[in-house]
């Protein structure tokens, strides 16, 4: 009976203590006079039953003259920017003050999570300084022929499909195209997604994006309590996805280093950072002495992985919406086609990097998506 009494008293004291804890946490925005979305214990302002779009639609209903709305992720206060000038302050003017992304990283158990998009603080700064030279216009120009090669294969695949099928799932076809482009540029290997819709690159890429390793609540807990989740060895990446991509990168790096192979792709630049800490043409005098450190293999693999993910779904979705709008608006489609023909005629029918940059109307259409 004494044990039962102790347990009973413990529960009696625990419930109000937990309630007071949440109430204290949920007073953050109110105490600061910020308009906020009323939280609910224990989820905060973000309900697990809603998708991201519906959730943010609710947040924006609280928009006022204040430049942002306060919400809660479990118990953590989060800012949802609603003012364009405020967004510009965060992303441009005061960029150096907002280096933390608040995303869960587990270097020991989930090496693919240690990429530029996830890292915070000094680790992010160091890596950004090293990777910035890889995204100059000159570097992109070197990769352009590789993209053209995949584009030619895309045209051939489309021609073959048009001979046998009347209808096509454009989103899937474009996703296979962007998978091959990114796979070639980021990993330097042929993914063959255009020929085989079930190719491994496409398979594991879709699994990572469409099948989260944990539910919505656990994913939010990772961001709010990262140290606890690291102690529990929780990861965002499926084990088989990590095994596949780490294996592909290992094989690619070993083969290129052993045979002294150089290519105009992202992987070549990463290998330079791994072996020399700098990229050809970017002298060490341009790099802060504090960050002249070679990339580890795990860091190299993580950057290649996020480069792959960055173009996996986003690019194909953008292209899908672009084609849809062009189909719906014949006048815009005609203007777009006229500009393409005019520019190509200037370059003797050859699509070069310079020709692409002259297609300003086409660029506006794509960016408008």
Automatic annotation (TrEMBL):
<keyword id="KW-0256">Endoplasmic reticulum</keyword>
<comment type="function">
    <text>May be involved in the metabolism of insect hormones and in the breakdown of synthetic insecticides.</text>
</comment>
<dbReference type="GO" id="GO:0016705">
    <property type="term" value="F:oxidoreductase activity, acting on paired donors, with incorporation or reduction of molecular oxygen"/>
</dbReference>
<keyword id="KW-0492">Microsome</keyword>
<keyword id="KW-1133">Transmembrane helix</keyword>
<keyword id="KW-0503">Monooxygenase</keyword>
<dbReference type="GO" id="GO:0020037">
    <property type="term" value="F:heme binding"/>
</dbReference>
<comment type="similarity">
    <text>Belongs to the cytochrome P450 family.</text>
</comment>
<keyword id="KW-0479">Metal-binding</keyword>
<keyword id="KW-0560">Oxidoreductase</keyword>
<protein>
    <recommendedName>
        <fullName>Cytochrome P450</fullName>
    </recommendedName>
</protein>
<dbReference type="InterPro" id="IPR050476">
    <property type="entry name" value="Insect_CytP450_Detox"/>
</dbReference>
<dbReference type="InterPro" id="IPR002402">
    <property type="entry name" value="Cyt_P450_E_grp-II"/>
</dbReference>
<keyword id="KW-0472">Membrane</keyword>
<dbReference type="GO" id="GO:0004497">
    <property type="term" value="F:monooxygenase activity"/>
</dbReference>
<keyword id="KW-0408">Iron</keyword>
<keyword id="KW-0812">Transmembrane</keyword>
<feature type="transmembrane region" description="Helical">
    <location>
        <begin position="6"/>
        <end position="22"/>
    </location>
</feature>
<dbReference type="Pfam" id="PF00067">
    <property type="entry name" value="p450"/>
</dbReference>
<dbReference type="GO" id="GO:0005789">
    <property type="term" value="C:endoplasmic reticulum membrane"/>
</dbReference>
<keyword id="KW-0349">Heme</keyword>
<dbReference type="InterPro" id="IPR036396">
    <property type="entry name" value="Cyt_P450_sf"/>
</dbReference>
<dbReference type="GO" id="GO:0005506">
    <property type="term" value="F:iron ion binding"/>
</dbReference>
<dbReference type="InterPro" id="IPR001128">
    <property type="entry name" value="Cyt_P450"/>
</dbReference>
